[in-house]
């Protein structure tokens, strides 16, 4: 779905972010070439074994702040 959206909307995945709270979200974003961000609320609270390179934030608002600072 990420790749289809990129094709449909001419998105540059290398400059895109994928914000999610599940391991599968993070893996999908990374596989598509996006920068993944893990939100540690909901399911994200139980995700402990991701690469240290994956940014972790406490809230969706914090993810937005991180993206805007990039």
Structural class: alpha/beta
Strand content of the residues, in percent? 15-25%
Distance between the termini: 24 Å
Count of DSSP strands: 3
* Spatial order of strands in the largest sheet: 1-2-3
Helix content range of the residues, please? 40-55%
Largest sheet: 3 strands, parallel
Q: How many helical stretches?
A: 3
Rg calc: 12 Å
Kindly state the mean pLDDT as a whole number? 93
**SSE pattern, N- to C-terminal:** HEHEEH
Oligomer: single chain
Short description:
The protein has 70 residues and is α/β, with parallel strands linked by helices. It is 40% helix and 16% strand. Strands 1-2-3 form a three-stranded parallel beta sheet.
Question: What's the layout of helices and strands?
Answer:
Elements: H1 2-9, E1 17-20, H2 23-32, E2 35-39, E3 56-57, H3 60-69
Parallel strand pairs: 1-2, 2-3
Describe this structure in words.
The structure is a single chain. By secondary structure, the protein is α/β, with parallel strands linked by helices. Helices cover 40% and strands 16% of the residues. Strands 1-2-3 form a 3-stranded parallel β-sheet. It is globular, with a radius of gyration of 12 Å.
